[in-house]
Amino acid sequence: MKKVDVGKRILGANETYALRNSQILNRGKKLCLNMISSPGSGKTTLLVRTISDLSDTVAIGVIEGDVQTDIDAERIRATRAPAIQINTEGACHLSAAQVNKALQELPLDDLDAVFIENVGNLVCPSAFALGENGKIVVLSVAEGDDKPVKYPAIFAKSKALLINKIDLLAGGLQVDFDLDRVHADARKLNKDIAVFPVSAKTGEGMQQWYDWLDAQVRSLR
Amino acid sequence: MKKVDVGKRILGANETYALRNSQILNRGKKLCLNMISSPGSGKTTLLVRTISDLSDTVAIGVIEGDVQTDIDAERIRATRAPAIQINTEGACHLSAAQVNKALQELPLDDLDAVFIENVGNLVCPSAFALGENGKIVVLSVAEGDDKPVKYPAIFAKSKALLINKIDLLAGGLQVDFDLDRVHADARKLNKDIAVFPVSAKTGEGMQQWYDWLDAQVRSLR
């Protein structure tokens, strides 16, 4: 039986759309960040707070990827930011073709930045370029401090690491999590990664993330 | 171009190995549970505590699936239980062929039950039968109470749901999580699912899980 190299063919089609997306975004000088994490790390809560806190300075639109439901897009729209929901109906990552369609539905001219909230999954989304300027990996402290060594690909490829839910570390030992270990392990995989310990719930640490984000937006102008 | 139905062909090969695994396990009257969850829900900690607490009554062996590292198998072996590590090198789920090889390496005659700890991923592993008697889904309260509706497949297919890290709900509002909502949403997808709110850290709720597990082992004798 002749072997068909399907992985390569699919990635080829994805790369074509990723290139188109990148051209659309570059032409408009829009920042586009592809957010990747496990389910429940707090990506949507991070976005809701970021959009609200930066509403006077950075206009953000969101492409929401989920296996099912439009719960997350509704949460984003409550901030009045535009959000396009993509349901993958079982697929474990967004494709560049899906993002291409969503980019055409977003009011791009009115935006400074587009966040793509990928399907909650620390493995598959890291392998598919969507045309973004950079990937952002989010890790909740409740997930444990061994994740960079156990899931290295996404940490090696990301521009920034948001370590979320640090409020669970406050006042003692609700969660065992060694921030220094995660810093060190992430930097071993990726010496340039920016690391932001934050709580999207309490706001702790968010200003450093906003400053970085603002610098990324300005660098494209 | 002729379309090749690759999904079907791969699933076919997987099903063949799953059937073989199932025959091996049935012949030996061994319980085999396939544990599936997001990264960091606490699967390994749950297993370590379960193995230790049941060491006098149920002999457990473990097949550990991870993208990289053998950290988890080492944690299991510290309990003196046998553990076989499989590294998927990037793949987002275990295959039945990998489990087949591991089953041949485990001292099956000395065991009552085999736990397969799948790769941390709430999407992909749910689509691949490994020859198990049942799937177990683990959800940490830190991941949020919207996961059954957002990732329905694994909740629909599992025999039991372990809601872990309930210690984070104690004494107030460290984590916002509506246990009743998760019960109701999981039962809507799967009326027979057994639900166990537990803390593998403090031991709370673990006895009900042990009773259920013991009944599953006995039912095969």
Labels describing this entry:
homodimer, 221 residues, alpha/beta, Rossmann fold, seven-stranded parallel β-sheet, 7 strands
Short synopsis of the structure:
By secondary structure, chain A is α/β, with parallel strands linked by helices. Chain A is built from 8 helices and 7 strands.
Could you characterize what this model shows?
Two copies of one chain form a homodimer. Chain A is α/β, with parallel strands linked by helices and 221 residues long. Chain A has one domain (12-220): 3-Layer(aba) Sandwich (Rossmann fold), CATH 3.40.50.300. Chain A has eight helices and seven strands, in the order H-E-H-E-H-E-H-E-E-H-H-E-H-E-H. Chain A has helices at 6-27, 43-53, 71-77, 96-105, 147-150, 152-157, 179-189, 206-219; strands at 31-37, 60-66, 83-87, 113-117, 134-140, 158-164, 194-197. The first copy, chain A, has a seven-stranded parallel sheet, sandwiched between helices. In chain A, helix 1 runs parallel beside helix 4. At the A-B interface, helix 5 of A face helix 5 of B.
Terminal Cα separation of chain A, in Å?
Answer: 53 Å
Give Rg of chain A in angstroms: 17 Å
Report the order of strands and helices of chain A.
Answer: HEHEHEHEEHHEHEH
CATH architecture annotation name of chain A: 3-Layer(aba) Sandwich
Mean pLDDT over the full residue set of chain A: 94
Largest interface, per-chain counts?
A: A-B, 37 and 37 residues
